[in-house]
Structures are given as structure tokens and as C-alpha cells.
């Protein structure tokens, strides 16, 4: 067994374990820490795939920024501390069948996927290749994405201000 394969098995186990813990833990901060472990292990898998740029972006954006935003959002909002009733075996069985069906569909979709052969080497200057593709071929979708994110940010600010006004009036 090669070292790369062993590293992949360990990182994949951490990613799946983090996802399972995320679903089963009860404290929000513990859930976020499980999510961070999943994000970091996925970044490790990107490194194994020689996609260093994606690994750094994964750590900076997801493990850092998105996780902090989620923590602030959770901690700054009011939520009831009521415990939800636990589902019975029917609910758990249905959930398991749904997840198993989704996994089967994804597996069959990936198994039958045929990638075209590329003329360029992927492991040489991959960050430069991403930059060139992003700012030449995909510049319009890139800019549209930034506009959508800006509109979402402005909408969130307006909604937050509206809630502040309602609380002040009460």
C-alpha cells in the first residue's frame, strides 16, 4: 500500500467522520468544529490531487471565513432551546434509504462518466491555468457571481436593519 493511498484513506475517513459527527452532535459549536475537520480533510485530498490552489482556497474560505460567519450567525440569532422529538425507526430507515439511493445514483453517475482527453498537463502551473481560464473564458460568469453575492449581502443588511426597527418599536 502506497503512502498516497494511505493518506487518502485517512483523509477520507476524517471527512466522512466529520460529516457523521456534524449530523449527530447536539451542540452547535461542536457541529461547526466537525465541519471544520471535514473542510480541512477535503483540502488535504485536494493536495493529494495536486490542486494546491484549491486546497488553499478551501482552507481560507471554507475553514476560515464561512465557518466564522456560520458561528456568528448562529450565536447572534435568537433560537428556541426546545429539543426536537427524536425520530423513530421509520424515520431513520427512510433517511438511510434516501442516503443510500443518493449514493448509488452518484456512484453510477461517476462510474459512467467519460472525461475528454486534455492536451495540457494538469500538474504543471495549475494555479496559472485556473487564473487564465477564470479571467478569459469564464470572466462573465465570474463577474455575475460577484454581483449576485453583492446583492445577497445588501439584502441581508436590509433584512437585519428591518428586524432592528421592529425590535425597537416593540
UniProtKB/TrEMBL annotation:
Instruction: Give this protein's Gene Ontology molecular function annotations.
Output: NADH dehydrogenase (ubiquinone) activity; oxidoreductase activity; quinone binding
> Where is the chain membrane-spanning?
6-25, 32-49, 55-74, 95-113, 138-160
Q: Where does this polypeptide localize?
A: Cell membrane
Topology of this chain in the membrane: Multi-pass membrane protein
Alphabetic keyword roster = Cell membrane, Membrane, NAD, Oxidoreductase, Quinone, Transmembrane, Transmembrane helix
> Can you tell me which family this protein belongs to?
Belongs to the complex I subunit 6 family.
| Descriptive protein name | NADH-quinone oxidoreductase subunit J
What organism is this sequence from? Niallia endozanthoxylica
Amino acid at each position: 500500500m502506497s503512502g498516497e493511498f494511505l493518506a487518502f484513506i485517512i483523509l477520507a475517513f476524517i471527512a466522512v467522520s466529520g460529516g457523521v459527527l456534524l449530523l449527530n452532535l447536539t451542540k452547535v459549536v461542536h457541529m461547526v468544529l466537525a465541519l471544520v475537520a471535514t473542510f480541512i480533510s477535503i483540502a488535504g485530498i485536494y493536495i493529494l490531487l495536486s490542486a494546491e490552489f484549491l486546497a488553499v482556497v478551501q482552507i481560507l474560505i471554507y475553514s476560515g471565513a464561512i465557518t466564522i460567519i456560520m458561528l456568528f450567525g448562529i450565536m447572534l440569532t435568537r433560537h428556541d432551546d426546545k429539543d426536537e422529538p427524536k425520530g423513530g425507526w421509520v424515520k431513520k430507515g427512510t433517511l438511510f434509504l434516501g442516503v443510500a439511493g443518493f449514493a448509488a445514483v452518484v456512484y453510477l453517475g461517476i462510474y459512467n462518466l467519460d472525461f475528454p482527453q486534455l492536451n495540457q498537463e494538469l500538474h504543471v502551473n495549475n494555479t496559472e491555468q485556473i487564473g487564465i481560464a477564470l479571467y478569459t473564458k469564464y470572466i462573465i460568469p465570474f463577474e455575475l457571481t460577484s454581483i449576485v453575492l453583492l446583492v445577497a449581502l445588501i439584502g441581508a443588511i436590509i433584512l437585519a436593519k428591518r428586524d432592528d426597527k421592529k425590535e425597537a418599536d416593540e
